Amino acid sequence: MASFAEAEMLVELVRHIIPFTDSLGMNEQELTNLHSTLVYGNISIVSDSIPRVAIVLDQMRQVFGLIREKSAMTSDSRQLTRLHVHTLAYQAIMTVKGSRWKNSMAAAAKASLTANRHVCGSREVDIAKATLIMDESFSTSIGAGSRRVPLNEEQPVSCWDEGEMEICVAPVLVCTEARQTAGGGDNISSAGLVMQI
Length: 197
Prior knowledge:
With 197 residues, this protein is an alpha+beta fold.
C-alpha cells in the first residue's frame, strides 16, 4: 500500500481491491488511515510516528475483522489471512492459523533485518550504527488486563496465538546513519512476504 493523501483513493481501494486480497502490508500511517476509513468513513489527519505496539495490534485486529466480515458477504471475494504492519520501531505480522502463511516468526525477523539493511544501505547489520527504540516490554492490547510481553534478547521475536490468529512482533534495529529511505516499505513488506510463500 502506498501513502494515502486523498480519502477517495482509499475508499476505492477498500471497495474494489481489498476484498480480493488475502495479504496486506502497510506502515503505521497507512494502518491508521485504513482503520479510520473502515471504522469512521474518513482518513486520519494525524497519526503517531512511533505508535505503541498495543495500539497497532488493536488496530490490526479491528481492521482484520472488518475486512474479513465484509469479504464474507461477497461470494467472489477472498478472505484476508495475513496482515503485516511495519513501523520504525518494530514489525507486526498477524496470520490465520492453518492458512497457507507459514514461518511468521522468520518473516518478522527478516522484515526487521531488512529495515536496517535497506536504510543503512548495507548488507550487514552494524550494531554501532543501530539502536532499539522499542520499549523493553509491550502490552498486547490497550484493553484492561492485557498481557505484557518482555523483550527477550536471546529470542527477540515474540509470537503467540489468539483464537484463530498467530501474532508475531519483532523489534527493529533502527539505522542511526540513514543512507536511503525511498523504497523502504516495499523492501520490508516483500522481505516478510518471501519468508511466508
